[in-house]
Amino acid sequence: MKFKSEYYNESQIDSIIFSYGFKQGRIQDKDKIKLNVNYITIDKMKLPISMNPMDFGKLSETVNIENRKLYILQNITGEIIMFSKFEEFNEVVYSKNGITLVKFKDEIISEDKFVRTIDNKKYYFENGKQILFTKEIKNKFIEKTKVSKNLQNNFITLDIETYIKDNILIPYCISIYDGHKTSNFYITDYKKVDNMVLSALKSIMIRKYNGYNVYMHNMAKFDIIFLFKYLLKLGLVKPIIHNNRIILIDFKFEKYNLKFKDSLLLLLNSLSKLSKSFNVHNPKSVFPIFFVNENNLNYIGEVPDFKNFKNIKLEDYNNYKSKFNNNWNLRNECIKYCKLDCISLYQILIKFNDMIFNLFFF
């Protein structure tokens, strides 16, 4: 055949075969930049609060390198993003017309938290929102400070356990630890929740604890929900708010003063991970937090099913279960769980204080 087009006149097409499949949902536009990503403006640049490279722009090319994966993207303003994804962190460089505009490093803290480092600044994010900002500032040489004879650990720790009723969290156990003894408050010892919470708070409103800090892990997003209204009933409350979160409560009761603080803002990690990092003597215990409800607060019997536990391996569950012979006691195990949380947090803070003390005074 002289021309290729003549081939179709000479050769008859017998059949055309199509291969296809079905998938639920609407097909995503791969070229479309996601719109549900939160952003933060730094040095007049709008940067996504995300660890996912696809949230930064349209993908141009992907390159596999020995210890990382490089994504080359372009955003809607024409900037080129070189996104290097490592196992535990990302390194990102923005450039335009061959000029570097900004570069930063994102490091994973936990499943929903990461920290972004740009020069001497650190931005901490949780669930797509900024929760903390720090900046390293160079100062003049600090003159030698006189060595303090004693390290003062004037603080106590507090923990609250709750169950869910009608989508509302109800406190049922409170533990308080001062470094020497633990005080426990359990709901079935009182007529109602108000009496239990007020009794727990009044136990620390004494001269012995005047001027103390009361630390709770994740106070700003959890514990303060239950305590705030009771503190208002008992004394004068002055909250300090940052980024719409209560980070400290200055509380005055008659002639005594307490400060309620969130230790999670000081040590950004879970209690179990902090216990391992600081090698504390009382690691976080095991407890079926999803099992408790208003009708079984004095339950005694078999260990609850595996599904009622959180962040526990099946092997650890079986080892825990083997310690009981159908006499598992909800009240005793909850108090133990709550108490060990307080003790763990206290020991972590003691070691953290020692570290800071030695850093500045020795």
For this entry, give a set of tags.
362 residues, alpha+beta, Nucleotidyltransferase, domain 5, 6 helices
Describe this structure in words.
This protein is an alpha+beta fold and 362 residues long. The protein has helices spanning 7-10, 193-202, 223-234, 271-278, 314-321, 330-361; strands at 39-42, 45-48, 58-65, 68-74, 80-85, 89-96, 99-110, 113-118, 121-126, 129-135, 155-165, 168-177, 182-186, 213-216, 236-242, 245-253, 256-262, 300-301, 328-329. The protein has two domains: 28-135, no CATH class; 155-361, 2-Layer Sandwich (Nucleotidyltransferase, domain 5). 20% of the residues lie in helices and 35% in strands. Helix 2 (193-202) crosses helix 3. The chain is globular. The relative contact order is 0.09. Mean pLDDT is 82; it is low at 1-5 and 30-34.
